[in-house]
Amino acid sequence: MNFDSPPGTSENPSTHWWVPVFCAVLLGCLWTMHRAAFDAPFYFDSVYHIVMKPSYHLTELSPEALTRAVWGSDTAHFPYRPLAGLTFAFTHYFGGLEPRWYRAGNVLIHWLASLALLWFLLELLSARRIIRSLGLGARARLAVALVATALWSLHPVQTNVISYVVQRMASLSGLFCLLSCAAYLRARNRPSGWSWLWVAGALASWGLGLASKENAVLVPLYFLLLEAFALEPSERRRERFVLRAIFGTAFLALGAILAFKSAFLLRKLAEMYLQRPFTIGERLLTEMVIQARYLTLLLIPDPRLLTVDAEIPISKSLLSPPTTLLCAVGIGLAVVLAVRLRRRKPLLGFAIGWFLATQLVEATVTPLELYFEHRLYLPSAAVFLVLSFAAVSLGARSRRAAVVSVCFVALFLGTEAFGTAYRTRFWANPILLYDDLVAKAPHNVRAYANLSYHLLEYNRLDEAEDALDRAERMVPDLRSSPFYENVLYNRGLIAIERGATSEAVDYLKKTAALGGVSAWRALRTLAGLYLDEGDLAAAQENVQKAFRLKPDDSWLFFLRARIELAKADPAAAQQSLSAAVRLDPLNGAAWATLGLIARAKGKEEAAEAFLRKANQCGYVLRIGTGTETRLAPARTGARLPGGP
Fold this sequence. Notes:
Helix content is 67%, strand content 0%. The protein has helices spanning 18-34, 45-51, 63-71, 82-95, 99-125, 128-134, 138-154, 159-163, 168-189, 195-210, 219-229, 237-274, 280-299, 323-340, 346-357, 380-395, 399-428, 430-440, 445-457, 461-474, 484-497, 501-514, 519-532, 536-549, 554-566, 570-583, 588-600, 604-616. The termini are far apart.
């Protein structure tokens, strides 16, 4: 097999028949490998930002509903990412809150990002400086791009951006960043009178990336990397003027945004670092060690190394632990190597620069959690580009070398595919996923809390309680953990299931007193308990407290309506229920109660319409009794599917 033979009738590798066949096969592989987890529940913050985000629950394509999906105000727990939110809203419009539709959409977005990567790599490998340094023909360059794209797409580390639903934001932003870079390369590689259209497309894609996730702010830096490593300096005065205008405008815009928001950003940084167990300096040092772990994950596609919430030791200094110094020296040498290779081996230099530059938002001073595998979405492309180039270059030497190269690529891809399918099995089962997480991070309080919650959903009360007991034994500073409130809240839910109401009230009051993100849920659950016991004053007090923390919660309006009905005020109850279904059209309990009120007023047609809505939400009435089949006290607005 001669990789370096000409590609047939055209020197443009993107026109080869391999490309459409590759794209079709890739989609089939991705769909098959990830299909097992389609029906798994929502995990982690996917619950907060999809299930519990009413503005994303699109049920009609009216201007008001679309505006609410884009500009929704219920963003207390999440940065503003309108395009990603709009895709969630459209997914809800077609599939409701069925997780399978969200994950199917994530597979398609990841596939489109793979195609964008393929285009980007083809344009990169067509840059004149890269062509001169590689010494490979068009077919060989096409092989490099195809192999790199396949390695990137099928790697088990990408399971996070598909099965962890809310990480669509990472893949969507990655898609537009790659499109932006590809369009920019297209304009610079083949300048013509229409190049300005490609430049406009690059800038538009940058804007769409910013609307998906803030990481896309680095796109102008990616353009500079391309200019430094891949592209020849422009010889035309007009082109140089346009380039200066592009970069000048981009960096002026970024500077203006930073200047305008500097006070807010600095205050936000200080507030967020108060909630973290590390300082800015410690975070920078720790991220250097994490880079070595990231590279290990990419080079060894073993799903047993993957986790969704790793336990990372914090580096206190360059020598604590000593590996911090080694990693810091390694990163410094990598930067020096990239600069020195700029002329002779620009592709390798670009790959080093790309791997480091694409992590500048999440691996530097931003006070995010230290480690997540979906942060490798864009950086990993550099690693697979180098591996692919090495394999194809080896194959171009001789027929025997080509056989070795093909075997290596096939083995690596096969290992990746097996690893992805194996890892997807864990995502498909929340008990397996969180049990695996606890095994890999035995001091992770959040992992124990999530495990106990899902065990509770399967009515495995003893095992749920045992998970919380293990957290008490394994974490000496449990009470100082920000996730201690989850432990208390889950103990309250277990007590409710066991019928120990007074014990449940005690745990829920302690949860609410901590004032964390679970406080409003604890207050809501307390209100439901008091309401079921007939203590309307206590129920109303807790509902009011919960409203101050979460004014847009549909279930709080439902609980308030139940209180108003108990006080014989159906008009007020009807207003509260209308607000509940406006916030969450899938609140079947609210629809059913509206139906009962309408039936009591003799409005049978309206009652039937409301009850039909309730039935569509999976909510039914007891036949012949005229009363609703309401949720058990622990679930009267207390818990939502998918996580604590």
